[in-house]
Every structure is written in structure tokens, then in C-alpha cells.
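User: Sequence in, structure out. Go.
Assistant: Echoing your sequence, followed by the C-alpha cells.
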Amino acid sequence: MADSGQTPQKLVDNIIDFINSERELYGDFQMGGHPGDKDTGEANEQPDPEHTMNSDSNGGSSAREKPAESDSAGDDVSSVHEQIQQCHTLEELQALCETARPLRTDLEGTRLVFGVGNPHADLMLIGEAPGAEEDRQGEPFVGRAGQLLNKILASINFSRDDVYIANILKHRPPNNRNPRPEERKRSLPFLLRQIDLVNPALILSLGKVSAQTLLGTRSSLTSMRGTFHNFRDNYELLATYHPAALLRHPKWKQPTWEDVQMLRKRYDELGCSP
């Protein structure tokens, strides 16, 4: 029974936190649905500390949500893929991404968050989606979770300048929700080209959504952690917790430490640099 001094909102927050914790460990599940409802595969997680929605003085969103854009007939998918493959530098790909409608979410006025770091890095980090601060600065991982990521990198003798950092989505979704399956599908070809242009030896996938998208699975993060996965026959991919999850659940810092130690060891074994 709940503590009599606990407010209803606090009780709800605690329940949501528990459910999100279970999802992070054991994968997606559906609760409270009605017969016939479809499972969209979305986690419906609460906003995390990194992805905090800005509000205006009237309590509304500082950026307006609009209906999701479908792949219209005017967007020739084969043409888009051809344009992606014709990009031979990160600069060319970024220019294409600036105007690419498939990369947009249903939040108006967002800024492209392309990627940052060493364009020739042997280690590439891939998160899930930009948050409010990332949207403002146009750079991934610059909020509270980004500060923690910097510390994690420093613990294994890396700086942000040594690695390349990107996200599955390149535009911020509204209300800091998880990227939708169709958004991930539309964004993936651009990200895959970005990966090929950087051509890292190793990829560190940050968070369940990132790992599931890249590996094409709905497995839990627990089952994906602790081993290097063959990714597109060219890269080795290791999955670990998203830094924002560590801010909510400090108990996951120890397994993350084990993951990045494994990453550093493999990086040195392969003779990667710097």
C-alpha cells in the first residue's frame, strides 16, 4: 500500500519509473490495451533528463507538433537513396540532410542534428534522438546525458574529439518520445551512409532503440549487451545503456562500466587510433 504521505502524482511517477525500468531490461511489452489494438512496438517511455521539453510562459510547447508526414508520392524513395549514395563526403551528406523531408519528425521548427567529432574516427557512438538542448545547439549529446557521456569517454581515455557521435534520428521528436518505427526506417539509410563515410572499426550503440534499429531486432538491451555483434560485415557493434538511463537508474552504471572497458580492450586489440 502506498505511503499515506505520498502524493498521487508521485505514486504515478514511481509506477512509470518501474515500468520503464522493466522495459529497459526485458524489452517492449504492452499494458492496458483493448482487444484489437495494434502493438506499434513503441516503448512510450517518459521524457528522460536529457530530453526535456521547453515550455513557453503559457505552459505550451515552444515548438508546435504537427501531424506526422507520410512518405508522399512526391518523395521518390529510389531517388532519395540515389542521392544518399551520391554523397561522397560527410559535408555532402549533411547538406542533403538539411533539406531531406524524410528526416523530419512531427515537430515543427526543429534543427538538424547531424553529427560531431573526428570524421575519421575508429570509434563511432550512436544514440537515439536529439533532445531540447541538442536541438538548440545542433550537436548531439550536449545536455546532462552528454556531460555524463563525456565522463564515460574520459574514463577509458577518450575525448569527444577522438570519436564520432551521431543519433538514429537527426531531428528532435515531440515530447521527447521514443523514435517511431517509421521514423527510424526513414532515417536509417542516411545514418548508414554516414557510418560508411566515417568507416569506424567499432560502433557503440547507446540505448535500446539505437541497438534495436541498427541490429534489426526487438531483443531486450540485456540480451544485446556483453558481446560484439557483426554489423553489415564491416563493423563490430557493442550495445550499452544510454547515458540518460544512467541518470535515472544509477544501478546501471556498473554494467555500463563493464561494457566500455570491453570496448576499450577491443579498440586496442584492433590497433585503432588515436
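User: And one key feature?
Assistant: The mean pLDDT is 82.
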